[in-house]
Each structure stands twice: as structure tokens, then as C-alpha cells.
Amino acid sequence: MGRDVSGPEYLEGRVGDYLVQRFTAAGLPWARQPVSPGRDNVIARLEATVPRAPVILWDAHQDTVPVENMTIEPFAPVVRDGRMYGRGSCDVKGGMAAMVAALERLLATGGPRMATVVFSATVNEEFGFSGAKAIARLWDLPAADAATSDAAARRVVGRRPVVAVVAEPTGLDLVMQHKGAIRWRIRVSGRACHSAFPEQGSNAIYPAGRVILALESLAAELLTRNPDHPCGPPTLNLGTIRGGAGVNLVPDLTILEVERRVLPGESPHEARAEAIARIAAASGDARIEHDEPFLESAGLADATTDPKAAAWVEKLTATARSCGAAADRTAARYGTNASVFTAAGVPSVVFGPGSIAQAHTADEWIDLDQVGTAAEILAGVVAAG
User: Fold this and answer.
1) What would the DSSP string read from start to end of 114-181?
2) What ranges make up the beta strands (E) of the chain?
3) In whole angstroms, what separates CA 158 from the centre of its chain?
4) What domain range is 272 assigned to?
5) Which of 335, 331, 274 is nearest to 299 (CA)?
6) For residue 243, what are the β-bridge partners?
7) What pLDDT, in 10s, does the model give residues 361-381?
8) Do 245 and 325 belong to one domain?
9) pLDDT one-digit tens code per residue, 48-72
């Protein structure tokens, strides 16, 4: 989540190690794709058994949010009353487990497979989508030109899929649209001095207060725009403020982190530009710098506008309903890797076990029956004639 951390219990390395062991034991081709130090995507491939079959992508992110203030032991899974408790159980290890189990089921049954499945376990979804963006770059990279670090991943990924299924806790419904987001840091500068002589300095917190009021006003206004959109209105949130080193010092810097959520079809760049203009109008001659965004993604558009993807969405819907799921087509206010894949030319749908109401919670859990049903559905879509 952008913090300076170190040690084997941080980042996704041990999750990737486990997946590699699992795919090796199953005999599935796999590759690791370095994204940043200690953070590798893991990609596996299960070939179709029929000629000229399409490729579909199954994606689940490896990372989780932090564990502060949890009321359960985060990484000691407990099963009680059909639920598994633990950080990431719902978001999104349950969905990942369903996809891995479906791959192994398809391999073990030996029946016809109507599509080649590429499974990507991506890193850094919660904070920056960098893992999904690294996967998307592979589709435009000629195999012969792949860098050494990407060569194996490029071979496993192969050609661009016709559709992607992105695991998130949707309760076995299909999320067809969701918001995108742009996140960036604002730096408000002043001049430090001793607090006994504050007039000799320039307190960076005061103009930061004007920035905050401008953002608050814009956030309230955004809630009145498009209030009836299936994804809800566009939103703005000021998430963190850092400034000052002590009460007896005049602070020379305040840093704010801002998130602007955008609707499908809304430009993240233009949304950020509007916020910057509002801040400039409210803050006079204050020294304010806006860092480049550390996350930028458009919203997810409905995959069924693409005929090839629509056929697979119909298969997913029909198979889910045959397994007892409602499989309603819905919209969401959150964002996922699906918007990254869609922007790269792969229409995407979000689907998986669990409820978003349990994601990121102090006692995070998932219904294990739903995990099993999700695996049955995913395998059924590929095995169906």
C-alpha cells in the first residue's frame, strides 16, 4: 500500500512460491514475471483440446490490504460454520483458490476443453494495478523481442485473450461495469523556522487547509453528478495528510493523498485536472505541486458490446445459473484489474465467490461452499460444448 516495508512476510513472494509449487505438481506450464523487487506475477496455461480454440484469461491478485486493527489472527486461517476467516480469504484468495481448483479439475477430468485458459496471479492490485499492467504489456510484445525477464511470461501468455474473468468477491454475480480511479499526491510547501518566531517562516499547513476545503467542496458537488448511474456518482476522497515534525516547529511541507473515482467513460486525466484547477483557484499564491498519479485506471465498460466476449459472458451466466447461482449482471463502485485488461483490448467481467461486504474487514471471511461452486462454474464454462 505504498509503505516502506521489508521482510518475507511482506509483498507477494511467498504466495507466488506456493502457486509455482502447485502448478509444477499439476504439470502446468508456468512462468514468473518480475514486476518490481520482490513482486512477481505468476502465470500458468492450460491448453484447449480442440483446434482453433480461443484464449480466455482468468485473473486473481495475490496482494492483500494491511492487517492493522483486525480482530482475528490475520494469517492463521480458521474454519468455523462453513466460513474461512483470515486476511485475504474474501479479497481475493477465495476467488484465486476457485480458479486454481478449476484448472486442476479440468486437467484431471481429461474431457474436452473448448478454450485455452491463461491464469494470471497478479501483484499490487490494491494500490497500483502494476501487475495487471505488466500482463497487458505482454500482448503487444513480439515473442522474439521480449526482454529476458519477460520472455518466459510472453511464451505462457501467448496471444491476446477474447475475454477476461477477474476474480473479486461478487457473490457469484457478474459485475459488468465499475468505476475507475486516479490517485496522486499534493505537496504544499512553506518555509521552516522556530515556532517562537513564526513570522520568519511560512507554515505549510495553512495553505494545505485551503486545499482541503476546495477538495471538500468538489467532493460534495460530485455527489450530485450522475447520481442515478448504476455505479453511483463520481466521488473524491482525501485519504491521508502528513505535515509537521513537532509543535515547536513551523512546518515547511504538507503532503496530501487524493483519490478521484471516475465513471465508465469519464476521463481520469480530466477529472484530476478539474481538481487541480479548483485547488489553484482557492489557494492563491501558495506553493503547490501535484505529483504524477501513482494509480490511474478508467472505469470498466460492459464486455457484451464485443460479440466474441458476449458469447463467453452468456456461457458464464448460464453455467452459474445451472449451478444454483443467481448470476445477476450488476455494477460496482469499486475498481479492479478488469479495467486495465479492457483498456488493453480484452473485454472483461468480474466474477467470484464471497461478498464485497466482507472484503478488508476486521474479521474477514468467506463462505467455502461458494468457493467450491465458483470452481465448478469456471470449470464448467471451459468444459461445456
Assistant:
1) SSEEEEEEES-TTTT-HHHHHHHHHHTS-GGG--HHHHHHHHHH-SPPSEEEE---BTT-EEEEE-EE
2) 30-36, 39-46, 55-61, 78-80, 83-85, 116-122, 163-166, 174-178, 180-189, 193-194, 235-243, 249-250, 253-262, 287-290, 295-297, 329-332, 348-351, 365-367
3) 23
4) 180-297
5) 335
6) 254
7) 999 999 999 999 999 999 999
8) no
9) 999 999 999 999 999 999 999 999 9
Contact 45, 135 (CB under 8 A): no
Same domain, 139 and 21: yes
Determine whether 112 is exposed, middle or buried from the number of CB atoms within 10 Å of its CB (0-12, 13-18, 19+): middle
What is the biggest distance separating any 2 CA atoms in the chain, rounded to whole angstroms? Answer: 80
Say whether both 259 and 117 belong to one domain: no
Confidence check: pLDDT of 165 > 90 = yes
Task: Report, as an integer, the average pLDDT of 313-319.
Answer: 97
Nearest to 18 by CA among 88, 115, 82: 88
Q: What share of the chain is helix, strand, coil (3-state, %, to 5)?
A: 35, 25, 40
For the beta carbon of residue 11, count every other beta carbon within 10 angstroms: 20
**Locus of grid cell 486495465:** 340
Cβ neighbours around 7 below 10 Å, total: 7
For the CA atoms of 326, 330, 53, 133, what is the dihedral angle to 10 degrees? -140
pLDDT band at 143 (very low <50, low <70, confident <90, very high): low
Q: How many domains does the chain have?
A: 2
Helices marked H in 284-347: 307-322, 338-343
For the CA atoms of the chain, what is the radius of gyration?
Answer: 23
Check which CATH number belongs to the domain holding 265 and give it.
3.30.70.360
152 & 240 share domain: no
Asked if 364 contacts 82 with a C-beta cutoff of 8 angstroms, the reply is: no
